[in-house]
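User: Before I run my own analysis I want an independent prediction to cross-check against. Here's the chain; please return only the structure tokens and, at the end, one sentence I can use as a sanity check.
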Amino acid sequence: VEDRWNSEREELNVLVWTATGSIADPDRRILIDRYIAAVDKNGVISTGHAALEMPPDIYVSHYPANDIDHNPDDFRALLSAGHENDVAGRFNVSLEQEAAAWCMPDQKVTFHRFRPEAVRHFWTLYSRDNTYNLTARNCSTTVIQVLDAATEGASSKGRLLRDLIVLLSNPQFWLLRVVRGRAEAMTWT
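Assistant: Structure tokens:
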């Protein structure tokens, strides 16, 4: 993979459909709808969605080929990351197509310092297998893996000892470790 940083005019956008933002009439359940899923007034469960775009040619959106039944009675069993919950997946083609079929995302985060070739390389390899797993190989785990590849080394100034001290003294670095540890239990939050 070529180790070149992008030009400042290129963008890497993370698009998020939050659980409560992706259903029309959420029945608020504090903490549950923030960290696990939202439930509407009819009992329909939404876990939200995440995608990533690098205009003009990369759109990363991993979704089950057929909707997974989010029945409240068996939803807990779906949270197992085991292969028994693997299903066929699909990759959505574009934000325009995805939004037309559902709705626009309610959150967007834009990165300006990333490696476009790392994004392309990762996506070429990852998209060879469309297997989807609600907990282990889903839209959010896909997006975070692309971000990991794209931004690896983004804070480096080329001075190893100084870069290490700056990294270790940054409270956000340690907070990220806590967040990543929690993400292993609930990968899409």
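Sanity check: The longest strand covers residues 12-17.
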